[in-house]
Write a structure and sequence with these properties.
Elements (H helix, E strand, L loop, with lengths): L1 E10 L2 E7 L4 E3 L3 H12 L17 E8 L2 E10 L2 E5 L7 H5 L2 E3 L8 H6 L1 H4 L4 H5 L7 H16 L17 H23 L8 E4 L12 E4 L1
Parallel strand pairs: 3-9, 7-8, 8-9
Antiparallel strand pairs: 1-2, 1-4, 4-5, 5-6
Helix pairs in contact: 6-7
Length: about 220
């Protein structure tokens, strides 16, 4: 998916904002706008509390997006004193929403697969089942997970426990970003098994000064 254009009016402390975006890397220097773009990508209007204070006109967000040759709109509008997001895309799982953004220092992506392999320790009470929308209980998820782990152990990316290895002694932020990219590879690969038309969503990268065009999708970069 590509976010081609966005218009924001009286939303999330943004009075008026319009912009066209590239398919590659887009630098956003407004934190509030970046938060709105995250909501568009992840399909969440619940990130914002309803507020009509000091507004002369209704608030809305309208994003023109595309997948291949198909164009569509994703909108956030006011409805019954709540914000409602309307999108033709299927809902994301909580785990997929987590992977919509890399923020330096927020998550330890090096141990993400280790957590899947040790579900009882890291995700008690069937929490992983909820995070993955039920997918983690399927044979296809476990089979793909085991194959992905085996392949990356063989090429030296993972150790025997399923933890990513910092082979090049990269600084912590860069290493975590490389782990994040591998987790995107895992997610996209598994989703591709379930849906031939699997959509590669844009991602947001915050707090990292490094090369980002290797993600093979649209990227929004913030401070």
């Amino acid at each position: 998916m590509t976010v081609n254009r966005i218009e924001i009016r009286n939303f999330n402390s943004v009075d008026c904002f319009r912009a066209r975006f590239k398919k590659g890397i887009n630098v956003i220097d407004n934190e509030k706008v970046l938060e709105i773009i995250l909501s568009i990508i992840s399909g969440q209007s619940s990130l914002f509390s309803f507020d009509t204070a000091d507004r002369a006109s209704p608030s809305f967000v309208r994003a023109e997006c595309s997948v291949g040759d198909c164009c569509f709109c994703i909108e956030i509008t006011e409805s019954d004193r709540k914000y409602k997001l309307t999108s033709p895309l299927p809902d994301l799982t909580e785990l997929e929403r987590k992977m919509c953004m890399f923020e330096n220092g927020k998550n330890d992506w090096s141990r993400e697969l280790y957590g899947y392999l040790n579900e009882d320790e890291f995700y008690p009470n069937k929490k992983l089942l909820k995070l993955t929308g039920g997918a983690s209980a399927t044979h296809s998820f476990r089979a793909y997970l085991n194959r992905f782990v085996d392949e990356n152990m063989q090429n030296g990316t993972l150790n025997s426990r399923g933890v990513f290895i910092n082979r090049n002694n990269a600084e912590k932020a860069v290493f975590q970003f490389e782990c994040f990219k591998k987790m995107l590879e895992f997610r996209d690969g598994f989703n591709g098994l379930r849906n031939i038309d699997n959509t590669l969503l844009p991602v947001i990268v915050k707090g990292l000064e490094t090369e980002k065009n290797s993600l093979n999708r649209q990227v929004f970069v913030g401070g």
